[in-house]
Amino acid sequence: MENGRYDGRKDVIMSNHLKGQASPYLLQHADNPVEWYPWGEEAFAKAKREDKPVFLSVGYSTCHWCHVMAHESFENEEIAGILNRYFVSVKVDREERPDIDSVYMAVCQAFTGNGGWPMSVFMTAQQKPFFAGTYFPPAARYGRMGFRELLLAIADKWQTNREGLTESAEMILAQLRAGQENGEIGENRDKVRADTEGERLFQRAAELFAASFDEENGGFGSAPKFPTPHNLIFLTLYAALFHDDAAWRQVSKTLLQMRRGGIFDQIGYGFSRYSTDAVYLVPHFEKMLYDNALLILAYAAAYEASGEEIFLDTARKTAAYLLREMCGEEGEFFSAQDADCEGEEGKYYVWSYEEILHILGQERGEAFCACYGITEQGNFEGKNIPNLLGGEAIADAFDQEKKLLYDYRKTRAKLHLDDKVLTSWNALAICALSVLSRVTGERRYLSAAERAGRFIERYLVNGDRLYVSCRGHAPSVNGFLDDYAFWAAAQIGLYEATLRPVYLRRAAEICDEAGRQFGAGSGRGYFLSGAQNGSLIVRPKETYDGALPSGNAVMAYSLVRLSQLMPSDAYERAAKRQLSFLAGEASQYPAAHSMFLIADLFYRFPPSKITVVLADEGQGNVKDGETAAPDESIGRLPLYADVTLLERPTQEYRVLNHQTTYYVCKDQTCLPPTNQIPERW
Length: 681
What we know:
Helix 16 packs antiparallel against helix 17 (481-498). By secondary structure, the chain is an alpha+beta fold.
């Protein structure tokens, strides 16, 4: 290196150390001229031996800006040569290693005030970070330092002022550890007031959502707008329990606007990651399994609360998308579809006016374009994103036309599919399909949920131990808290849809194992990683919700439901401790803790109790160990209810009029037995 100039091409390699990895993201970089290593002892030992800093790059396979930085910098032979000469480069799939992502995202946020992917971190061989950022262009632009310039500057400082870099690393590490310790002090402080302030947290969260609600366009805050379905589920439940019409209006407006917008694929169904604008027209086009699973739950809950058919229709169409495009041969669900197609974001999804008329014909094509806002000028870079934001009725008058366009779209381009199977995201899909089966009474959704469950148990479970993911049936790394928490919730969802005790027992086993691996001590929640995951510079503990509900919050929900469905003092105490801990964490900004608030609503406002006594012809329908669901009348019972199924009458629970009979108790009051299916709320 001379005067900041370096021709790195002579240090370019022909292959790197990502060959043979299971992660699609890592495999995307296996042919880069960068000498990538996966996270592990080999990389850090090399850095120590050769006295080099480590460059850590974290992303995922359907990340648009990850693709951009890969093409601009990691495929660039000069930049690759600089990395290979002066650094040891490590690639991490954030979906496989959420612990690494969590630790270094906190570092990135400390440096930049925000975070995102790709995440770029520079650290010592001891894993201590001294600089971090996200996307860097190859040369300075967008107001960002160029990546080549940054690499040379850090390489120079490593040689001439290493003490400054290591001091920075020690200071950052001290801040991370201090933040963790302060959090634990806060836990103990806030536990004292948790019980008295608990119900107030619901109202404060609702007030915060109301303050940021976009009255005109739906959603919260300004663009970009993320769906964040767990916020909508909390508001739906809160509105129903507290009879808050304003909260329900926020939910209804947001769900309806998303359904009308381009964030919803009007041709092939399913939701994109988020909207880049305020009106939900232009999405970031990647589709994630977890978004769609959570949105099925949100729309199903909204239908349950309101009876509005459009919400059920949207849940059904989103499920149809998952089952058609994201489901494997053995019932497993894949992770994501890319936003990019042939190097252009969104190319797969957009249309020209002339193209529509060519496929559908003049008359039907013009009618379709008028309905879905498609014009000759276009609404997105000269092309069109189909949408219903013009106020047209949401109806299925163009089913045949959409089928023609869908089939044509598949022939003109192909999307990259991340076919990695993630335990936690599959658990969410299982929850969603289980709930949809209960709302509709249709067995096909339950059958799909159980198939996915059998896949996970076969390939991603070893006794009570879980793995994060698999590809080609080969499991990857040991599971983290989110895998256990979400898997327990999925078992509870399957129990509620089938009433098979085997699922409830499995949920209890998984929760118990989570306590052994991740428990932080009585009343202090759960760490993200456990003894099975190896050690990092700090041990993260996440309590706030992001794009996904936090593992701590889902654990609270699972413990609450276990305490209600298979009552025991142990689960009651565990649920109360976890809720108390999270109440302290949520006290400053409860709107960031919607999943905890949902769990707390279940705890403070227990679901009604319904005992179903089958008529004589129903006896023998449901036995532990069978895969069949209860009959349709049971499948259509209220979501917010704990159901007990009796195959034959008892002295206490008799059959009325020789028909299936329902005994309902709610609000500390038991109602007379009836042959009518109880109301949904």
